[in-house]
Amino acid sequence: MISTTRFPALATGLALLGTLGASAQSAAPASLTVQVNKPGAAVNKNMYGLFFEDINFAADGGLYPELVKNKSFEIDARLIGWKALQGAANLDTYAVRNEQPISTSNSHYVRLTTRNGASGEAGIENEGFRGMGVKAGGECTLSFYARRGAGSINGVTASLVGEKGEDLGQVALTGFTNEWKQYTAVLKSSSTHNKAHLKLVLNGTGTVDLDVVSLFPKDTWNKRPNGLRTDLVQLLKDMKPGFLRFPGGCIVEGRTLSERYQWKETIGDVAARLPMINRWNMEFKHRSTPDYYQSFGLGFFEYFQLSEDIGAEPLPILNVGMACQFNSGELAPMGTASTKGGPNAPAAAPHDHAADDPSLDVFIQDALDLIEFANGPASSPWGARRAAMGHPAPFNLKMLGIGNEQWGPQYLERYEPFAKAVKAKYPQIEIVSSAGPSPDGDLFDKASKRLGELKAEYVDEHYYAKADWFRQNVGRYDNYARTGPKIFAGEYAAQSGAIGSQDNKNTWDCAISEAAFMTGLERNADVVGMASYAPLFAHVDAWQWTPDMIWFDNLNSYGSPSYYVQKMYALNKGTKVLPVTMPAGAKNGTDNLFASAVADEPTGEVVMKLVNYSTSPRPVSINLAGAKGLGKTGRAQTMASADLQTQNSLTEPKKLAPQESTFAVKGATLTYTLAPNSFTVLRVPAKK
Q1: 449/558 same-domain check
Q2: 512/535 same-domain check
Q3: Fewer CB within 10 A of the terminal residue: the chain, N end or C end?
Q4: b/e map 194-220, b = 16+ CB within 10 Å
Q5: Is residue 44 part of a domain?
Q6: Is there a single domain that holds both residue 477 and residue 563?
């Protein structure tokens, strides 16, 4: 006998089945009609995709699996991520220096000098990104540059250390000289730890300089030396996303223009990429993260490569000559002279990668150069840079975003010459423009009107709102002009509390409300061409914003209920919209019943999405009007929970995930009972 006390989820499921059976016998079915014989607009093959931004430790400490924080000592002189062993009791010198560095692009290193007569270990330790995740038997490539000074130091012993000081493995590297030289070894962990550290102990007495200290797992996606974290990439690939938007987000803008994301600084030799403080490090006082930075080990080449790996169209977003309007609002001048943003603009960032005071022409040229980097032949200047990184073939870039979430006349006056320049040289590139951070209001209306006049191809609309907003606005695009720009729902997520609140949770209430809203996106596929949830990733110990689609620690990861909703849409997007008539001609969403349908022409199936936002089971009768040659067995995927506050977690990663089943099909009228608080996808085989 199975104990439902030991397995509460099973008890809930058995009770739900009993309720469904009783309801199916008593409640009158809601009648819907799907016009199978009247297919409408085509669904964009890239309809559902991914939005990546380096927030919540999404890159360093997340998707990019380098284990050493501040490996090149370039962040500042405070040695972020590092500490001296035994409180520097055995070191006379422990400081960042810049005399005779490895290169001008990597101008800082750490100098260590042992103290004469001291006993015990002399050296340094790196904490990683909230620790280092290592697996039993897992191998990492350890590398660093070293240069010996005065004294007899001949090498370093590198050790992995567990949370309680356990010795997990060590290796000695020797042969130091008075010239910079790289040393490498394999460091293997004897056991699994989520928060290990790396310890470097000097062998001998004297002075040594160290730089570019890296500990990189060998188990990366496609086993690449500078590859990505396998479990996180797999979660993305499993969605079969249509596009990957990168690198953000407000990361694109920067708090000031000197802090903006500059793609040219993120390609080439990884060791030569200058890191920069992450603009999210101190944005939220309740989640202050002063050690958050961007190493750019995950740069534009790697983003393009990731897009290719997961079968997604790359969608890079570039700065339009505007810093974040929530911060300084600094503007690049329209001409070739320069002006700064105003008297209240913050001080410049520690690393200003660009020429001082760039004009808009600099930003436009960056865009043209990026297209050449992505698509140009290996014989072109920027195509040659791509080929030198190991990808001679073009990446086949088709889309480009101009600006992120900007608004007002300053954006529109910069967008117009920017778009004209791109189109003049690369007319085949589709351009994504911005309608600002809000889904309504005067600024939104003016931007939408002007972008329509400019014949923009895509307008990016964003909405973060309470869960009920998504259900109430399921008809948002029903009355949009059919001849205007396509809509890119580029950032959206239901909030369980207030927008930006640290108390927001990835609840089923949020996810099912998003599922309801997405029936409206699907029904209006002639207007909505792309959609993506945001943000994508969050480290459980180092997040700044919630809710998020995928959560992880240093070893494990899981998809939230919103992840599975997005995945169900992406895997069942179909090819043509099928009109759906709701019960008694009501609007979609009446009585909390939401529906949409598509034809999947390659498989010959009718695909229906149904949301029952109700505490009661809901029988439905679906007339598949004009359907021919229906099969006898359909397939169902269902997410359901009686508790709208249900969440997934590291300990219960699939507490709420799609459950698959089959159902009988008898003629052109299908009967099915929707579970309480459920999102269901039904696939019915039909004649091709």
Answers
A1: yes
A2: yes
A3: N
A4: bbbbbbbbbbbbbbbbbbbbbbbbeeb
A5: no
A6: yes
What pLDDT does residue 336 have?
Answer: 53
Euclidean distance between CA atoms 279 and 292, whole angstroms: 8
Handedness of CA 250, 253, 257, 261 (dihedral sign): positive
Would 331 be classed as within a structural domain? no
667/623 same-domain check: yes
Six-digit token string for 524: 């209006």
Among 198, 217, 236, give the residue marking a domain's end: 217
Angle, to 10 degrees, between the axis of helix 360-375 and the axis of helix 381-388?
Answer: 60
Cα separation, 383 vs 50, in Å, equals 26
Total of domains in the chain? 3
In the numeric block, which tokens belong to residue 506?
Answer: 């990835």
CATH number at residue 609: 2.60.40.1180
Mean pLDDT for the stretch of residues 484-497:
97
Q: 290 and 425, same structural domain?
A: yes
- For 395-414, b where at least 16 C-beta lie within 10 A, e where not — what string? bebebbbbbbbbbeebbbeb
Query: Is residue 154 in some structural domain?
Result: yes
pLDDT of res. 116: 85
Contacts of 295 (CB under 8 A, 6+ apart): 59, 60, 64, 66, 71, 273, 275
Beta bridge partners of 276: 294
Residues 596, 548 within the same domain:
no
pLDDT in tens, 188-220: 999 999 999 999 999 999 999 999 999 999 999
Which amino acid, 368?
A: L
Tell me the per-residue pLDDT of 4-57, one tens digit each, with 9 for 90 and over: 333 333 333 433 443 343 334 346 899 999 999 999 999 999 999 999 999 999
What percent of the chain is helix, strand and coil (3-state, nearest 5)? 20, 30, 45
- Phi and psi angles of residue 538, each rounded to the nearest 5 degrees, phi first: -155, 130
Instruction: Give the H or E element holding residue 366.
Output: helix 360-375
Please check whether residue 336 lies inside any domain of the structure. Answer: no
Q: Cα separation of 526 and 434, whole Å?
A: 19
The model's pTM: 0.93
**One-letter amino acid of 688:** K
DSSP per residue over 376-398, as a string? S-TTSHHHHHHHHTT--S-----
Based on the fold, state whether residues 269 and 376 are members of the same structural domain: yes
CA–CA dist 299, 267 (Å, integer): 6
457 counts as catalytic: no
Q: Which domain holds residue 24?
A: 8-35+575-685
User: Measured between alpha carbons, how far apart are the two ends of the chain, in Å?
Assistant: 46
Among residues 217, 247, 279, which one ends one of the domains? Answer: 217
Beta bridge partners of 142: 185, 215
Q: Quote the pLDDT of residue 118.
A: 78
What integer is the mean pLDDT of 423-430?
98
- What pLDDT is attached to residue 97? 94
Instruction: Residue 184: name the closest of 192, 175, 193, 196 by CA.
Output: 175
Q: Select which of 302, 405, 514, 605 is catalytic.
A: 405
